[in-house]
Amino acid sequence: MRSCGIVVEYNPFHNGHRYHAEKARELSGADVVVAVMSGNFLQRGEPAIIDKWTRTKTALQNGVDLVVELPFSWAVQSADYFARGSIKLLQALKCDTLCFGTDSDSFFDYAKYGRFFIEEKQAIDQLFHELPIGWSYPEKMAEVVSRLYPQTQAFPPNHILGLSYAKENATYAQPMEIFPLARKDQGYHDEKLVINQFASATGIRQAVLAGEDIAAFVPNEIQEELEKTHVTWEDFWPYLDYQLRANSLDSLKTIYQMKEGLEHRLVERGSNNFSAYLKEISTKRYTQPRLQRLLTYVLLQVKEAEIKTEQKDSMLHILGFTKKGQSYLNSKKKQFTLPVAAKIGQKEKEQHFLTYRADQIYQLIHPEEQTIGRFPIRV
Question: CB 3.0 to 4.6 Å from 5: which of 95, 97, 259, 359, for a disulfide?
Answer without folding.
Answer: 95
